[in-house]
Amino acid sequence: MRFNTLFFLPILSCLCLALAQITYDDCCLKYVKKLNRGTQMQAVAYRWQVTDGGCNIPAVIFTMRKGRDFCTDPRERWVTDLIKKVDEKVFRNDQKKHRKHRRPSRG
């Protein structure tokens, strides 16, 4: 009996350590079918989910102004259109940030 306990305890502790090292990705499991125009206007960023590791479906994950995420199918036309709109919005905002107001030189 004592041998079984001494044998079982180290194996159990190794198993617990191995399971503790597993990380679960924040993956999309299904897509939203459509976002209405008002919701699409709230999109401020997006990221791609690829099918490796624990994620089983490819997806584009849009982040809204208040931080909410929506998983979308990258093959849908409206998704590619929204990606372009978000890219344009980010580009315009970057242009505004980098534009410097200078006084004309008098010389």
In short:
This protein has helices spanning 2-20, 37-40, 77-98; strands at 43-49, 59-64, 69-72. With 107 residues, the chain is of the alpha+beta class.
In words, what does this structure look like?
- This is CCL25.
- GO terms for molecular function: chemokine activity.
- InterPro entries: Chemokine_b/g/d, Chemokine_IL8-like_dom, Interleukin_8-like_sf.
- Keywords: Cytokine, Signal.
- Pfam families: IL8 (PF00048).
- The protein is α+β, with helices and mostly antiparallel strands.
- It has a domain of 73 residues: OB fold (Dihydrolipoamide Acetyltransferase, E2P) (Beta Barrel), CATH 2.40.50.
- 42% of the residues lie in helices and 16% in strands.
- The protein has three helices and three strands.
- A three-stranded antiparallel beta sheet has the order 1-2-3, covered by helices on one side.
- A hairpin with a 4-residue loop joins strand 2 and strand 3.
- The longest helix has 22 residues.
- The termini are far apart.
- About 7% of the residues have low confidence.
| CATH third-tier fold name of the domain at 26-98 | OB fold (Dihydrolipoamide Acetyltransferase, E2P)
Order of helices and strands: HHEEEH
Q: Using only CA atoms, what is the Rg?
A: 25 Å
Uncertain stretches of 5 or more adjacent residues: 16-23
Strand order of the largest sheet: 1-2-3
What fraction strand? 15-25%
Helix content: 40-55%
Number of strands: 3
User: How many alpha or pi helices?
Assistant: 3
Helix-strand makeup class: alpha+beta
Offer a few descriptive terms.
107 residues; alpha+beta; OB fold (Dihydrolipoamide Acetyltransferase, E2P); three-stranded antiparallel sheet; 3 helices; 42% helix
